[in-house]
Amino acid sequence: MDYTDHLKREAGSVGYVNRNLLSVQYYFSGLKSKGLTVFNPVAGIRLKGMVRTIPCHLLERAELEELQGKYEVKDDRTHRNKVMLGLLVFQGLSRLELETLRPEHLKLREGKIQVPQTGKNNGRILALQPGQILDLQEYLLIIRPKLQRSSERLFTGRNDIESLKNSLLHLNYALKKLNPKYQNVMQIRQSVITEWLKENDLRTVQYMAGHKYVSSTERYQTTNLEDLKEALNKHHPLNK
User: Fold this and answer.
1) Could you give the domains of the chain?
2) DSSP label at 142?
3) Are residues 147 and 76 in contact, defined by beta-carbon separation less than 8 angstroms?
4) Which of 35, 39, 11 is nearest to 25 (CA)?
């Protein structure tokens, strides 16, 4: 508790304190697994009051599919970008998950993709859209060998750079021209998860999104968003 008080004085952020406490908990868990201690002093200690942001400026399903349909393929790189865009729009992948994918994660005969576990998200198996299967097959057999030399990843940037930051930046420029409401890849993922929740139960969407905690999925429930908007309109000083 003294250490917690020290962290609060140092930063004041609840998130900062909890992240440090989690690191210490992992450390003592490691000691315990090796028989070096029998007690974890940090187990169960968490500060309350963590502020979670609410997704906003979301795109409707029709707008997401319109982005995918209207994005124009001009060369091999834009072909790759369109394939990645499909995985963003239909499977709600994150940038890190795109960077982690390898060819063996594609199960094209089964019409599925195995999304590997990352530091933030759980692994899962998701269905592919029929049109995606053909696009992915063409990308694997024809486009990818032209763009990549030795990397084992499914997607890379120029000269086998593992980060897709610059590639997605170019994609962002093109998508903003198609729809001024578009902001970034995270907005696509948030929009997809919100649309999933309109048709599926909470636990199913938690799995589809790869969320480790159901509370992460609850943020996207439309009812919560509508309640927040109503409260904001009711109590905001400018509306009085």
Assistant:
1) 1-51 (no CATH), 61-218 (1.10.443.10)
2) I
3) yes
4) 39
